[in-house]
């Protein structure tokens, strides 16, 4: 074989300064918004843009903790526990994606944050998109990763048609739903994180190389499983399509997508790009549904490029941009 770069270089790496998620718990605060208390990690930085980080289903701020040192060097970082997830109390007003999107804007109001760049992963990409649709003048930008998710939200209304169109996506969602609905004891999360065999079995549908992920990050992803809003949020998509009215998105939008993402098939990306003129896509090669965990260095570079508009140099074999 030739001397080309290893496609797995940097995959799941631990960035300089990264700490276990537990080390950030002193930075957690509960913010009284106009509608509900919201728990978040708030890492201030004067005279800097603000990033608002939104987690996926049955998750919390810990999903981004490994990125805090790298991001907080340049930005104010607010990593949210959405209502009914993490340490934020359940709120019936916020079990829909519209309600969750409104809660993000309410949090920004309470913190006097203007024009933040919202970064949403998986379910958080739906929440961020709903915030952009319903409050088009409030966001300074939107970064979608592990998304967009447009086809799967029709599963409850059109199960047979959705399965026929994307059987892999449906199978992955079913597996995810079975995993996220129940809390996991810390001893079990430690066992999974430290076993390559268990990581492959449980995470193989979501990421390209479970065996290469940082064990501390894997443990963090299991901390908030079983959140009370998990299934109400999923069920809400049956009655109100969270992918509607995409034409109302006005802010600059970028999709950071793994080319092997089973939950966001290429047709979802094409649909989103066709309906949101301000959107473009950056594709991560050899990456699944967790780009910010699988390719943390590249992810931080792309966030910085989007926010600052700097054309920073990437490593070898850059993935295509459209």
Automatic annotation (TrEMBL):
Superkingdom classification of source: Bacteria
Name of the molecule in the record: Pimeloyl-ACP methyl ester carboxylesterase
Gene3D superfamilies given in the database record: alpha/beta hydrolase
Residue span, AB hydrolase-1 domain: 49-296
Pfam families to which the protein is assigned, alphabetical: Abhydrolase_1
Entries under InterPro entries matching the protein: AB_hydrolase_1, AB_hydrolase_fold, Epox_hydrolase-like
One term of GO molecular function: catalytic activity
SUPFAM superfamilies: alpha/beta-Hydrolases
């Amino acid at each position: 074989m030739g001397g080309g770069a290893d496609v797995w270089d940097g995959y799941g790496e631990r960035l300089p300064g990264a700490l276990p998620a537990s080390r950030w718990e002193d930075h957690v605060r509960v913010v009284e918004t106009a509608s509900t208390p919201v728990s978040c990690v708030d890492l201030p930085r004067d005279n800097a843009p603000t990033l608002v980080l939104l987690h996926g289903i049955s998750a919390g701020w810990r999903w981004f903790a490994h990125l805090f040192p790298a991001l907080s060097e340049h930005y104010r970082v607010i990593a949210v526990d959405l209502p009914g997830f993490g340490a934020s109390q359940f709120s019936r007003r916020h079990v829909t994606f519209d309600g969750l999107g409104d809660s993000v804007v309410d949090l920004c109001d309470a913190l006097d944050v203007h024009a933040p760049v919202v970064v949403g992963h998986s379910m958080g990409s739906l929440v961020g998109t709903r915030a952009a649709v319903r409050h088009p003048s409030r966001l300074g930008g939107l970064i979608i990763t592990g998304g967009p998710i447009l086809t799967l939200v029709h599963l409850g209304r059109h199960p047979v048609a959705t399965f026929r169109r994307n059987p892999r996506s449906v199978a992955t969602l079913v597996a995810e739903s079975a995993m996220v609905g129940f809390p996991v004891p810390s001893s079990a999360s430690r066992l999974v994180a430290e076993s390559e065999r268990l990581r492959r079995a449980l995470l193989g549908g979501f990421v390209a190389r479970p065996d290469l992920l940082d064990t501390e990050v894997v443990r963090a992803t299991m901390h908030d499983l079983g959140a009370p809003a998990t299934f109400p949020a999923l069920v809400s998509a049956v009655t109100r399509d969270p992918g509607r009215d995409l034409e109302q998105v006005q802010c600059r939008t970028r999709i950071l997508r793994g080319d092997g993402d089973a939950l966001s098939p290429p047709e979802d990306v094409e649909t989103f790009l066709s309906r949101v003129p301000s959107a473009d896509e950056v594709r991560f090669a050899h990456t699944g549904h967790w780009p910010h965990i699988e390719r943390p260095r590249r992810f931080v570079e792309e966030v910085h490029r989007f926010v600052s508009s700097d054309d920073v140099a990437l490593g070898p074999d850059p993935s295509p941009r459209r």
